[in-house]
Amino acid sequence: MPRFKLTNETLMNNQLKSILAKKGKKANGFTLIELMVVVAIVGVLSAVGLPQLTKAQDRAKDAAAVSTLTNAAKECSLELIGGVDDYEFDTDGAFADVDGTCDVGETLTLASDSGDGDTSEATMTFTGGVPGTATIQAVTAG
Hints:
Elements lengths: L7 H17 L7 H50 L25 E6 L6 E9 L2 E2 L3 E5 L3
Antiparallel strand pairs: 1-2, 2-3, 2-4
């Protein structure tokens, strides 16, 4: 007589244990295809986003040049009202890169290093002792 008697209940328990054991051994991590899809998506998003970022940086550099030139023109205007002749900007001050003199009818300029090697230039002309509106324009090399 056999020592162990196999019943249907024992067989079903063994089968259930083996099925549960197989389901519990799921592989962790990502497949190569999944990783390649993610890298491709990130590449497409970068290709679309980087030119826009560069344009925004160039606009910010131009806006900073216009703002600096406007402040320099205000300082010139105050000096003209105060009666100072031939006012020159400090060579090491905040407006050291501004070209031009503070005089009636003169033009102040300031370069902005925006663009791919090109530069833009902000200009402002005095009408009487009052500075006009700063404008920015591209300067071609050559």
